Amino acid sequence: MGEISLNKARTIIRGALKHGRAQGLKPLSVIVLDTGGHPKAFERADGASPGRYAIAEGKAYGAVMLGMSGTAQRDRAEAQAYFMAAANGAFGGKVVPVPGGVLVRDGRGRVIGAVGVTGDTSENDAAAALAGIEAAGYSGDA
């Protein structure tokens, strides 16, 4: 399975932060995880609270470990709260099942990692993640 290089991870982060600034969003925090849920890169914009790391990681972690976007996780939680509660328990409470956790796919459609963005509304976070992913030449499932 492919992997997101450190250079591409940094490109994703720069693209997401640039999108946030251009849209006038609140300060964002962005993380890129590999397919095992391990951090590849993280940045927190000036003015973003330090606790945002855990939220960004939880959004991306849920996406990559469950193989579903944050939006799909939110929808699943609304339809089957017990499933998401059980999954979150299985992952030690690390899953943040809301938009802003985005799967990263390569040109062949394979999942190669996930991005988590937090700082503004969940929908705006997801849009920033997608902008960063596209800047790196990948596609994303938001």
Helix content: 40-55%
**Helix count, per DSSP?**
5
Strand order of the largest sheet: 2-1-4-3-5
How many beta-strand segments?
Answer: 5
As an assembly, this protein is single chain
Give the uncertain stretches in residue-range form.
Answer: none
Give the N-terminus to C-terminus distance in angstroms. Answer: 21 Å
Average pLDDT metric: 97
- SSE series: HEEHHHEEHE
Question: Biggest β-sheet, characterized?
Answer: 5 strands, antiparallel
Strand content: 15-25%
Mind telling me the C-alpha Rg?
Answer: 13 Å
Q: Outline, from the CA principal axes? A: globular
Structural class: alpha+beta
Task: Sum this structure up briefly.
By secondary structure, the protein is an alpha+beta fold.
Describe what you observe in this structure.
By secondary structure, this protein is α+β, with helices and mostly antiparallel strands. Helices cover 46% and strands 19% of the residues. The protein has helices spanning 6-22, 52-66, 70-79, 81-90, 122-135; strands at 29-33, 39-44, 101-105, 111-118, 139-141. The protein has a five-stranded antiparallel beta sheet with strand order 2-1-4-3-5. A hairpin with a 5-residue loop joins strand 3 (101-105) and strand 4. The two termini are 21 Å apart. The mean pLDDT is 97.
Key attributes of the depicted protein:
single chain, about 140 residues, alpha+beta
